[in-house]
């Protein structure tokens, strides 16, 4: 995967996903799609069935990832995706499942 130059404008967004998203491979598919788009960050399941994550990349990359997250893999039934800009100086190295 190609690294972005340090001067590249990065956007970081925290995301929360609800719906029928467990047992359908949502997180694994999100990691594959994130790698394809070149975003960085993480995705994690919470005990209450919610999935949370952090998506970092160029504004276009982040928009494309959020668009995918609203649909998810074929068997997912996403009810809601909420996202907000996260202000951080951290630059993630890859997109991974925690």
UniProtKB/TrEMBL annotation:
Its EC number is 3.6.1.7. Residues 12-98 form the Acylphosphatase-like domain. InterPro entries: Acylphosphatase, Acylphosphatase-like_dom, Acylphosphatase-like_dom_sf. SUPFAM superfamilies: Acylphosphatase/BLUF domain-like (SSF54975). It catalyses: an acyl phosphate + H2O = a carboxylate + phosphate + H(+). It holds the Pfam family Acylphosphatase. PROSITE patterns: ACYLPHOSPHATASE_3. NCBIfam families: PRK14424.1 (NF010998). This is acylphosphatase. The lineage of its organism: Bacteria, Pseudomonadati, Pseudomonadota, Betaproteobacteria, Burkholderiales.
């Amino acid at each position: 995967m190609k690294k972005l130059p340090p001067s590249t404008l990065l956007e970081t967004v925290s995301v929360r996903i609800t719906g029928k998203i467990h047992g359908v491979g949502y997180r694994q598919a999100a990691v594959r799609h994130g790698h394809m788009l070149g975003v960085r960050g993480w995705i994690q399941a919470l005990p209450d069935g919610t999935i949370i994550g952090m998506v970092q990349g160029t504004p276009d990359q982040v928009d494309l990832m959020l668009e995918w997250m609203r649909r998810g893999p074929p068997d997912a039934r996403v009810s809601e995706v909420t996202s907000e800009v996260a202000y951080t100086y951290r630059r993630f190295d890859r997109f991974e499942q925690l």
